[in-house]
Every structure is written in C-alpha cells, then in structure tokens.
From TrEMBL:
Residues 82-428 form the Glyoxal oxidase N-terminal domain. The lineage of its organism: Eukaryota, Fungi, Fungi incertae sedis, Mucoromycota, Glomeromycotina. Keywords: Signal. It comes from Rhizophagus irregularis (strain DAOM 197198w) (Glomus intraradices). Residues 1-26 form the signal peptide. This is Glyoxal oxidase N-terminal domain-containing protein.
Amino acid sequence: MNVKLVLFAFLFGGLILLNDKTNVNALPALQARQDPGSTLGAFKIVGKSGVNAMHAVLVSPRKVVFVDKLENNALKRPDGLSALSSEYDLDTNTAKPLGIYTNTFCSSGSWLGNGTLVEAGGDKGDANYRSGIQTLRLYDPSVGDWVELEGIVPSNRWYPAMVTLPNGNVMILGGSTAATGVNRAEIDNPTYTIFPPPNGGPLTDTAFPFLSSLLPYNLYPMVHVIPNYEGKTQLFIFANQNGIAYDLDTGTTITTYPKIPGGIRSYPLTGTSIIIPLDPTDYYKPTVMICGGNKVYELTSPAEASCGRLELTTPNAAWEMDEFGGQGRVMPDATFLVDGSILFVNGAATGFAGYRKGGGANALWVNENPVFTPFLYDPFAKTYKTLAASTIPRMYHSVSTLIPDGSVLIAGSNPQGSVSLNVKYSTE
Ligand SMILES: *[C@@H]1O[C@H](CO)[C@@H](O)[C@H](O)[C@H]1NC(C)=O
C-alpha cells in the first residue's frame, strides 16, 4: 500500500509531539484486525486549530478552514472577540482567525462547482454574535475569508445537510427550525433549498415530505449523488434507518430501499455514510456504506457495531452487513485515503451526540467511552485493520480529513456547550 499513514492530531490547548511519522511501506506485514498492539500508522500532534473543530475543510493545497460554533475560543479576532472560524496553514502549523459574525452552531457546508465553499444555517445569536440560523456564508479560497449573507436562507436551518449537485449548485436539505436534542414535528423543516437559485431571484424552499416520515431521527440526513450515465440528478437520501433514490429533475422517488438492520444512523444517534470507490471492473456500480450509530437514545446504550453496504442501482438490492471491525462507534468519521481505503476514526463507544448534562463531579457525559483506535477498511476485500491508537478522546464535534501529503488531519472534540479545559473530556 502506498499510503503514508500519519494521523495528524490537533490539540486545542498545548502542543505535544507524540511520535514521528511512519511510512506504511517500511512496516512489516499488516496487523490482524483488532490487534491491540498494532503499530500501523502513528499520531503526531502538530498544532492548535485555534477554534474547536466542528467542521474542517481543505480549501487549498496547504490550507484548512475550521468552522466552530459560538463559544469562547482561544483564538481572537481583531475586534477582540473569540473567532468562530480559523484558517490553518499546514506548513507553519498556525491558525489565523476568520471573519464569521453569526452563530454557526449546527450549520453545514459544501462546495459550489466554481470553487467557492458554502456554509448555511446555524443557531441563534447573543449580545456579540448575530443569529446564523438563516445565514449563508461563502468562502472563496482566492479571497481567503468569509462573506456572510444574513437572512437569505428562506427558513431556519439547524442541522441541515448539504450536497454539491452535478451542475455545481448546492442543495440545503432538512434540519429543524430550532435547536433540539431530538427532532419533532412542530419544528421539523422537511424542505430543500438550491443555491444559487436556478432561476435567479430569492432562494425558495421546496417541500420534501419524505424527511417527515423519518422523524424523530431525521437531522443531518445523509445525502450522496448517485452517479449515472444519463446525466440525471439522482440523490441517495437517508436518515434514521431508511433511504430512497430521488430524481431531483423530475421530483420523483425512483427507489425506496429496505430498512437498514441494526440501530439508528442519524443525529443524535449519529453514524456516518460514504460512497464506496467506483470500480471500473464492476461497471462503476454505486454502493453506499453506512456505519455506526446507536439503537436507543440513552446515555448508557452501547454504540452500534455494524455497517451496511447497499448497491444503489441494483434492483431489489439488500443490505450487506458487517460488524464494523468489531467495535461499536457513535459519531465515527469516515475519510478516504489516496488508495481508496477508508479510515474510520473518532467517536464514542456509548451514548449519543450532544453536550454533557450538569458539571463538576455530577457531569453526565452523554457520549462516553471514547474510541481511541482508528480502523482502516479495505472496501474491495471488505476487511478492517486496527491502527495505532490515539491518546485524545474525540467525540462530539470532532473531524477528520485527508490532506495533500496523504496524511489524515484529525481535530476537535467538545462534548459541552463552551470551551472547557481540565475536565474529563476537555475541548480539543
Ligand atoms: C461562485 O458562485 C457564487 C454564487 O453565484 C458566487 O458568489 C461566487 O463569487 C462564485 N465564485 C467564484 C470563484 O467565481
């Protein structure tokens, strides 16, 4: 395998150097799965993200933009207030504040086809930061900072999903109209918005009732473009335990897929989804893989230890299940490596996505038992390998993304309402 497997870990507080980089090619035979002594891969802590990393996006070959929510981040803007977003330089390992002035909590993001990043939605503001729940934010890498368009999103979007459409526009889908632990009908937003609006004029919402059928677990739905030969705009849309193939051009459901076995897969019983690399020897047949989550909304509930694979264009396809490498994970992150293998990292072995309840010795951590061990999944052989473990819990509000040297950058974790250090699961 020609992948350099260095897992860069970012720390919000101090900087530690854990381990030097390890080249996979230099290692002896790959370790068996679930080998607790695995030394494949190595974590190296390289710098501070400045803001907690709720989202991370590689915006140019040497720069990563982090987006956080409204909280007392260490990194300050020129006006003295805490930054909600930073730009991290991969060469100097330093972060600088970016100009976001509306609350990004529970927003989402995607790329426009023209190379501008879009973020939409969020939460209400406070005395110093304005509401972000109807804000659309644009980051053009050649400009290097955010432009916020406040109030242009036609309805409140908290925990929407976003996806880049084949024509280069973005779709903003679902969410709720107010912050909530679990969604409910009164605040559900079963609609979508396209940006830029296809016919000019203001942004508009289009009803999408399928989402209501997935209540209460329909927040941050999973959305992927289904590649096809006919130039159609077909989407796989999934939440809770159910998904469909939807033709956006004609507004019709093409396929209703069977329910995924095992637990619930979306917020706050958060799993993850990824389209398996398209394989020319298999006629580029699109296959989705959905992993992790939890069965019930209880803080002692063990995380879901299963993944399902589903061929999206095969008639009457059934879910092909596995045990997710033998480890339950809620809030896993899935990242492609350069050879098409998939890194599963971060997450918790118990509970669900959200903030701790209470403080001090009485704190109840709703995500508990952090999973320190990344797994490397081979989507062709369908096997998992255990990688060297991290020492930093990374649960709610943590991220991972591939960077151009072939490493994976891992950051964040903050299972509490604001920056909090020296607690059991401090802000990273
Ligand atoms: C991309 O399109 C958006 C929306 O029309 C526009 O605001 C942005 O400036 C464009 N970016 C570039 C790099 O042209």
